[in-house]
Amino acid sequence: MFNLILFGPPGSGKGTQSENLIARYGFRHLSTGDLLRAEIANKTPLGLEAKSLMDQGQLVPDAVVIGMIDAAMKANPDVPGFLFDGFPRTVAQAEALDALLEQKGSSIGVVLALQVPENELISRMVNRAKTSGRSDDADEQVQRKRLDVYLRDTLPVAGYYSQFGKVVEIEGVGSIDEIFARLTAEIDRRK
Ligand code: AMP
Fold this sequence. Notes:
- It is a single chain.
- By secondary structure, the chain is α/β, with parallel strands linked by helices.
- The protein has a single domain (3-181), classed as P-loop containing nucleotide triphosphate hydrolases (Rossmann fold).
- The protein is built from eight helices and five strands.
- The longest helix has 23 residues, at 140-162.
- The relative contact order is 0.21.
- The structure holds adenosine monophosphate.
């Protein structure tokens, strides 16, 4: 089993590149943002609780997302690997993920960290808002909040995996194909 984390700030291209990586390698895609949006669409109590936090650019509580990831991993016992996208977003989530993988006798193979300058991130989110229908993309103040939360709570996750030598920085500016080639080169080197 080869598991990887696609890491990066909101708007760095994680969703787009995840789709391409799944098509190439057959990873099981686990995006906590997608799982939460499905809960909202189904109007579950969890979705209702998460929606207001998401609309404000805040994180959903660790226990909620860890529970969703645990259930999704248990529902997919026989996959070649998981691609985690938008998770873990806190060091507590990273520690919980490592424990869940350890139960399966597995671990994170690599953390690919997309590097994109802040002005480019904001303009990508503004553009995405035109087509995504995502209420958390539409408002520039919410975008700023999501970036602040990323810097405060999520960037330390890269520090956490760095201590195990698992983080590889990937230049996240260029065409989708160029960035994809950089990602696959790193995966192929390790797989
Ligand atoms: P994303 O689609 O990954 O940009 O996530 C959209 C929103 O869902 C985030 O701004 C958070 O409010 C929430 N969310 C997604 N993943 C997580 C996570 N791992 N931990 C906490 N909140 C999350």
